[in-house]
Amino acid sequence: QVQLVESGGGLVQAGGSLCVSCAASGGTFSTYVMGWFRQAPGMEREFVAAINWSGGRKYYADSVKGRFTISRDTAKRMAYLQMNSLKPEDTAVYYCTGMNWRRESWSLKSSYDYWGQGTQVTVSS
User: Fold this and answer.
1) Cα angle value 69/39/10 (rounded, 5°)
2) In angstroms, rounded to a whole number, what is the distance separating the alpha carbons of residues 113 and 123?
3) Among 12, 17, 74, 107, which one is least packed by beta carbons within 10 Å?
């Protein structure tokens, strides 16, 4: 199976920037789609961004579009989420996820096969 490990979370002031990373290992094939979800205390886990195998197709939640950028290095089996203009409401545990075969929706949790342990991002005001 594929294993995913996130890193790069931390504390940042509102308006600042942070980049979180995800390293994939194991499995026979590269993931078809890699994505990021986030979960704030007392809230459901929500979709943030996703990217296909080549990096040519990207999808973002409306709440982060224009501020966050997802990217991946398929050869290195890495995914990244560059977060700019951070707001306190971005505070959450950010989870990396991977999809090993094609499904119709990239924004549903049930579409993904593997999940990382999460990394905490805290934005102070």
Assistant:
1) 65
2) 29
3) 17
